[in-house]
Amino acid sequence: MTTSDSEKRTGIWLIGARGSVATTAIAGAAALRDRLIPPTGCVTESPELLDEGMPGFDDLVFAGHDITETPLPKRAEQLEVAGILPRGVRELVHTDLAATDQRIRRGVAPEEAGHDQLETAERLIEQLCSFRELYGLSRVVVINVAATEAHPPARSEHTGLEELEHGLRRSDPDGGTVLPPSSLYAYAALRAGCPYADFTPSTGVRLPALDELAARRGVPYAGSDGKTGETLVKSALLPMFSSRALHVHSWSGTNLLGGGDGRNLADPDNVTSKTTSKQRAVHESLGYPVDGEVHIDYVSALGEWKTAWDHISFEGFLGNRMTMQFTWQGCDSALAAPLVLDLARLLARAHERGHSGPLPQLGFFFKDPVASDEHRLVAQFETLRTFVRRLREEQ
Amino acid sequence: MTTSDSEKRTGIWLIGARGSVATTAIAGAAALRDRLIPPTGCVTESPELLDEGMPGFDDLVFAGHDITETPLPKRAEQLEVAGILPRGVRELVHTDLAATDQRIRRGVAPEEAGHDQLETAERLIEQLCSFRELYGLSRVVVINVAATEAHPPARSEHTGLEELEHGLRRSDPDGGTVLPPSSLYAYAALRAGCPYADFTPSTGVRLPALDELAARRGVPYAGSDGKTGETLVKSALLPMFSSRALHVHSWSGTNLLGGGDGRNLADPDNVTSKTTSKQRAVHESLGYPVDGEVHIDYVSALGEWKTAWDHISFEGFLGNRMTMQFTWQGCDSALAAPLVLDLARLLARAHERGHSGPLPQLGFFFKDPVASDEHRLVAQFETLRTFVRRLREEQ
Amino acid sequence: MTTSDSEKRTGIWLIGARGSVATTAIAGAAALRDRLIPPTGCVTESPELLDEGMPGFDDLVFAGHDITETPLPKRAEQLEVAGILPRGVRELVHTDLAATDQRIRRGVAPEEAGHDQLETAERLIEQLCSFRELYGLSRVVVINVAATEAHPPARSEHTGLEELEHGLRRSDPDGGTVLPPSSLYAYAALRAGCPYADFTPSTGVRLPALDELAARRGVPYAGSDGKTGETLVKSALLPMFSSRALHVHSWSGTNLLGGGDGRNLADPDNVTSKTTSKQRAVHESLGYPVDGEVHIDYVSALGEWKTAWDHISFEGFLGNRMTMQFTWQGCDSALAAPLVLDLARLLARAHERGHSGPLPQLGFFFKDPVASDEHRLVAQFETLRTFVRRLREEQ
Amino acid sequence: MTTSDSEKRTGIWLIGARGSVATTAIAGAAALRDRLIPPTGCVTESPELLDEGMPGFDDLVFAGHDITETPLPKRAEQLEVAGILPRGVRELVHTDLAATDQRIRRGVAPEEAGHDQLETAERLIEQLCSFRELYGLSRVVVINVAATEAHPPARSEHTGLEELEHGLRRSDPDGGTVLPPSSLYAYAALRAGCPYADFTPSTGVRLPALDELAARRGVPYAGSDGKTGETLVKSALLPMFSSRALHVHSWSGTNLLGGGDGRNLADPDNVTSKTTSKQRAVHESLGYPVDGEVHIDYVSALGEWKTAWDHISFEGFLGNRMTMQFTWQGCDSALAAPLVLDLARLLARAHERGHSGPLPQLGFFFKDPVASDEHRLVAQFETLRTFVRRLREEQ
Ligand SMILES: NC(=O)c1ccc[n+]([C@@H]2O[C@H](COP(=O)([O-])OP(=O)(O)OC[C@H]3O[C@@H](n4cnc5c(N)ncnc54)[C@H](O)[C@@H]3O)[C@@H](O)[C@H]2O)c1
Ligand SMILES: NC(=O)c1ccc[n+]([C@@H]2O[C@H](COP(=O)([O-])OP(=O)(O)OC[C@H]3O[C@@H](n4cnc5c(N)ncnc54)[C@H](O)[C@@H]3O)[C@@H](O)[C@H]2O)c1
Ligand SMILES: NC(=O)c1ccc[n+]([C@@H]2O[C@H](COP(=O)([O-])OP(=O)(O)OC[C@H]3O[C@@H](n4cnc5c(N)ncnc54)[C@H](O)[C@@H]3O)[C@@H](O)[C@H]2O)c1
Ligand SMILES: NC(=O)c1ccc[n+]([C@@H]2O[C@H](COP(=O)([O-])OP(=O)(O)OC[C@H]3O[C@@H](n4cnc5c(N)ncnc54)[C@H](O)[C@@H]3O)[C@@H](O)[C@H]2O)c1
Ligand code: NA
Ligand code: NA
């Protein structure tokens, strides 16, 4: 069976479509399509993961939700000033950005999320479906790259699909909110039959009720929280300590970042979902408790750049105490954007091949992988490689 | 079939038996046997690699060659002052050190190596055999932890066993030396039927002629250059860059160290084998040339401690330039000693199970692994794990 | 006029006399007296500051207050295990520690401070006076090296001596506490005519009422918060940025420390006085607001060692953004103890020469110097040098 | 007395006028004149050093020597790509760069320097004098910002002016070169009555013969080797160790840099003058020998940016061993360029006020200050401040 071009036309619907990550991904995809840049940072373009069956860069159509009005071309200019988008590239993809901006719809802000959740969900579903239809897309992958939310309190409606749909239908007598925005987006995506991924640590699809929905609708999902900086390095280094039987006493981290993500994480409520997600790897990889805090500080002067310093104290033979430190200076959006494209292509392909429910095979991309407690980057990569090979062979 | 205790009694013959690594290994093995310390840093004691069939810590008898006269108990005191051997431990293993010191024989210094190499080899073989016999050992594993040598010029005698034995028999008309000391030790070990490992970057067993000898004698060997510090971290980090399709432009390293190893590596001839071995991982893992130098500086104030600083510049999506730096502050002998014990146990076991020739499965331990170009630590660990499982099952 | 030996016998009364800093200072003074160690870290022994008129190490008698019962010799053993006190030294000064321990009196814990403050003060004064008399001391210098307190709320009693003494006399109708323990100790010291220094960021002598008392009693005082680590480096680096007209955008710091001080500063109330004191230098030296947070994390595995990482982003010519980072790995008590001895000697000498009130000339020693906004270390050193020269000449 | 505008018109003649530092200085001066940028990094614009009597940015006319043909506007474009010159600024100063480029004359390459040195010198002098006359300049300051040369062997002609002029007049029978290019430029400058500064570690004016000439011609000079990165930080940190009586055991440094300076210093001959100059501060400030090497590695990927890592091991009270590390990531040309402007203004003013010979008061700017062994940055700044105040008052 050959895949005709029209069968590959794929929509990428980004929640937070005017943010730094989204803008970089949209601009980057256009630049890749036109071969203005090499696919550095794009793992689905590496020889080991290449799969002709995945949608190509000229098969992608972007759209999304956001709650800001700043248009994409304007955001792209800001990213040029910040040193992330080369001027030449930005100018050449201007038309793509302007066209995509027309396809961005008004999303749901946290403070609005409480009202008429079912009605809101129907609107979101309807938007996803019209997009798919209008552009004749074989499928639409939804990826959440919106600002990180605070983790909501647990509710009985989260435990099963029936409870959830019952809860969404009636208004909460206590005025509470059944689903945070991220989960409302995920609910809509799954109901519309769209593969879905949480690139943020927000709750999103990570509720039993939504897992049930994904299974019922036969849709695959992935998450959470893109692994791009400090945690990426952690997941590379942790197996060194464990496989060498070195005992880690403490692992402390300080992250300095500016940009919108930094400003949002300066809010103590929002940062908790992030720091929790960042420490998961340490505890799960080592299997014993480790001292040390993770700080995330907003430093506006750093712009879109992040600096992370980690300090690890460990013990070797005969009780000898040693330390390792690292400093990571990365451009977060440039690290995240190609992974967003990778995820969209992989989810589209997995959906096509009939995969549904959580995809632990995509743990390579995430700080807090669904349905998996493997955090070792190399092992995750091997799993991903095997997964892609099977996708290819199944054909 | 059960392995009777006497069948497990194993000799460990250390070349450089009075050096820091050797002294720490000998003292540590006695402390482990008496349960004075936990097996931190000893990978063959980790649940994933444990194999009851390997010799236990009470099955080991140490001996070796060295060219210094400073007795082991004295070296141990120096290591106590340097903060590596806890006083309590040193006092409790004093008797073991004194006893082992009696079994250390005069080795071959580089400047003496040229004379009557065959005669010298016969003496070394005879020493290994008497040790095995006298102590009723099922086998003797020889490990080279002597000072790093300069790499010798290539010679035709190195290319095959016949050429080598011919060359050793007659005296070189040009006064040259057929084998450097490390290779002479390796030759003797193999001829005596002893499994052998190069923990140093010296030539040792890494000659076609000796590979042939190992095959003929049915003896396994491993090497080279224990991976304990900067290169260990490199081999954990390199797959992060490659699997994420990030392009590494430069990888620069500065190593500051005191101790005997530091003093020896301050000699520009000797350091070359080390820096070559240290850069192998970068080039082979990435598959493209990378800028950057590796410096090894002798800083006496650091004593037995090493500080390595590495600086990596790399490129991500859209040409964004990023950097990573790390500082590693480790106690080299405490990192190396448990691996020496691990290697001895694994080689003994592999020999028992009939393995011979190079063991690429032990690449996990080395900067410059024999018969392998896999440098990714996690992949090496998986290979080792499979190897140990098979050793266990073969039984 | 010659200073007879008896005139130089000087008491050093330490608040927190069984803490790490105090124990290291007491043990170190005995070791210096017996010439067991060189005076590394002791600035009053450097050729530039040496003043024969200051009390020598054999003129010092130690005593103090604490609220723990752990005796000094026991604390010294703990500091030996922590790697701060060399075993040889500890054994040789054991008798001094045991004798000093006999002179330590029960202090005032924060939770007890509220009761009968005047009565408590009289007891403290009486203890100081008996010590001076019993040992025939020409004077007693009181130095606060107790655990850092939370900063108390401002009160009208703090504004003048009359108000204070009136407030201490009657019990607070609202059950509040007029003075925190550190200020109660300072009040007692000044009333007993003892020169006083705050080596901690606790309130101590830094109240208008106590300043008035010091003037009236003709007693000099100094403070606050010994400058030994991150802030010491800051005060060396800040003038580099300002004198070169480089614009600092952010200065972020993370301090990892174990020990008693670390445990105490893990309490968010106590840490505030510390972080405030730590940021003073940045803002006052540069004269404009600078971004960045200071974190103090308790990491028990680090024991008595502290690691500080600072990240500075700054701007140069043509808007170029640059960064500097430093890591400081120091042993806090070993840095602090000799300064405690220096302060005691300098305060004793200044008192002898008739100085009273705040001594801004000792700003060199402090994060938060009294009566001074000069933070540049080199300038502070020049001031101190001039001060010592005058003390010498006045004779 | 007021200084009329015409009296202030000042020439700045740069040796290496098309290099990174020169181009940045010329572009920056035009931008400052037109108030396109703030004077960040320019110390003569700070309130503490401002002197109305110095030439203003609209009083400066640039010219110089170079041996490359790449015109200034082209170099400026390269510096824009490297991220040093903001595009806006570069476009706005284009005309100035093009005009200055017309005033750049062919210099003397090291390989040409041997021929007819007196004749060459006469040509250089003539070029300086015509420039001064043609533009009606009150004076011309010559600053060497050319590529660092290898240090030449000592020669008897260097020891006195008479010997030198004698030597220049006749051709060397052995074919040797009397003066390296940098000294030939310095000789010409002094003979033309121009104040002179060596911003490089090249020999330049640092010969007894040239000192004599400066005195005779009544011209002030300054040098050597601009203090902008690692050594700047060293000179800020060294007094911390010395004033606190901490004993420094080792100070190791690795400098990674790209750019033309990096490429030139990759030559082992040239780098020696640099590393020598870099270590001067450590030895002279501490007064005792300190271990540690300085490496300068060319890493082309770093472009015009430099990363320096320094590691310092030191000892405190009771023999405690501590360490400090720092990483400096700076843009060398942006750090150097404003200092070149500062030096030109200060030398012009000093010349006007009648100063001649070496100016140790400008030690603040140099790694290897003439006629001074003070390296403490704060002390150097105080000296400079006093010097500027006097210049102002003398009026
Ligand atoms: N960049 C990385 O390396 C990386 C890694 C892991 C996770 N993330 C996560 O990705 C997300 C995006 O990061 P960014 O740097 O692009 O941030 P950003 O602040 O630039 O963009 C976030 C966008 O989300 C929009 N938004 C906020 N709330 C919304 C809502 N309820 N509905 C729809 N849109 C909403 C904002 O208007 C904004 O345009 C963050 O949550 C971040 O934590 C990023
Ligand atoms: N410690 C580590 O982490 C590590 C890692 C990889 C490799 N190594 C290598 O292990 C070796 C030992 O390191 P160390 O720190 O113990 O050094 P060391 O200097 O303390 O000990 C070396 C010993 O070898 C002896 N020796 C020298 N030449 C000899 C010869 N020809 N024959 C027999 N003995 C000889 C010396 O007398 C000395 O006792 C070095 O080559 C080092 O490069 C160490
Ligand atoms: N070590 C340094 O470099 C440094 C630098 C600046 C300031 N300081 C300050 O010095 C102080 C001492 O540090 P440390 O490391 O010795 O701490 P520590 O915890 O080892 O010792 C503190 C001692 O104070 C005692 N104490 C607590 N409350 C008391 C009270 N109300 N009255 C009397 N004693 C009391 C404790 O029992 C303990 O013995 C801390 O406040 C610290 O912040 C230390
Ligand atoms: N940038 C800094 O922070 C800094 C600090 C201290 C010293 N320096 C020194 O300043 C100098 C210039 O640095 P750069 O980054 O501009 O280097 P660069 O390589 O960009 O420029 C050097 C220029 O000198 C020219 N040149 C070479 N030999 C010459 C000669 N004999 N006569 C005339 N011109 C000659 C070259 O053609 C080139 O244009 C170097 O010596 C460097 O070591 C720079
Ligand atoms: Na924080
Ligand atoms: Na070098």
TrEMBL record, chains A, B, C, D:
Gene3D superfamilies: Dihydrodipicolinate Reductase, domain 2, NAD(P)-binding Rossmann-like Domain. GO terms for molecular function: inositol-3-phosphate synthase activity. It comes from the Bacteria. Pfam families: Inos-1-P_synth, NAD_binding_5. One of its GO terms (biological process) is phospholipid biosynthetic process. Residues 229-333 form the Myo-inositol-1-phosphate synthase GAPDH-like domain. Belongs to the myo-inositol 1-phosphate synthase family. This is Myo-inositol-1-phosphate synthase. It comes from Actinopolyspora xinjiangensis.
